[in-house]
Write a structure and sequence with these properties.
This protein has a single domain (8-212), classed as NAD(P)-binding Rossmann-like Domain (Rossmann fold, 3-Layer(aba) Sandwich). It is 45% helix and 9% strand. It has 6 helices and 4 strands, in the order E-H-H-E-H-E-H-H-E-H. Residues 210-215 have low confidence and may be disordered.
């Protein structure tokens, strides 16, 4: 009531999660990453969509996923982002079904210069692994992946640039918001071709070893 009607909702909270093999990840790893990346969006929708439907004015919802939610998944983080994409697709279809005046978008950024590599600083103590837990050890391929991703993020777009992209997408009522379309569209096509070809996804070349490292 203090701030009036909500017309634009951005569910943007996210953490990087732990880089470990799926079978070694602890339940705490899953709870932390799912709790922020997935349940954060659920809570945002539960809190605001009924209000937006009630006031009946034009509105828009943006859920932040990742290119990791459109390409081949990678670890717990990829699982959460695929979930957000699927949730947002469902949300859009259901709002259309009831004739709601609410546009929906899913933001799928690639490299953006944010503090997500240091998101562990906000991990609750109750969800922190014991150092002796196998889930605390970072496998060598995952370490290479983290180094490559952290370097890419530092050279990525600035958050203000992404904000401009999102605003334009809201105005255009775009559903999928791609921050780096020239890089992202080939990944989406590659995933689709893998599915149609009934093939297993291959790990990123740069995690296989120095000789496979991308230029």
């Amino acid at each position: 009531d203090a701030y009036g009607k909500v017309h634009v909702l951005c569910n943007n909270a996210g953490v990087s999660g732990e880089l470990c093999y799926i079978w070694q990840a602890s339940y705490k790893d899953w709870d932390w990453t799912m709790g922020v990346n997935f349940w954060g969006v659920v809570h945002g929708l539960k809190a605001f969509v009924p209000h937006m439907l009630e006031h009946g004015e034009e509105a828009h919802i943006v859920n932040t996923a990742s290119i990791a939610g459109l390409g081949h998944g990678w670890g717990i983080y990829g699982v959460t982002k695929h979930a957000v994409v699927a949730m947002t697709e469902s949300l859009s279809m259901q709002l259309q079904l009831i004739g709601a005046r609410i546009g929906v978008s899913v933001l799928c950024p690639s490299a953006v210069d944010t503090n997500i590599p240091t998101s562990r600083r906000n991990r609750p103590a109750a969800l922190t692994n014991d150092p002796a837990d196998p889930a605390s050890a970072v496998p060598e391929p995952m370490r290479r992946y983290r180094e490559r991703m952290n370097a890419a993020l530092k050279e990525g777009k600035q958050p203000a640039e992404v904000a401009d992209i999102v605003l334009e997408a809201i105005r255009n009522n775009d559903f999928y918001i791609l921050t780096h379309p020239d890089q992202q569209e080939p990944r989406v096509r590659a995933r689709a071709e893998t599915i149609v070809g009934r093939k297993a996804p291959a790990p990123p070349a740069f995690v296989l070893g120095e000789e496979w490292r991308l230029p």
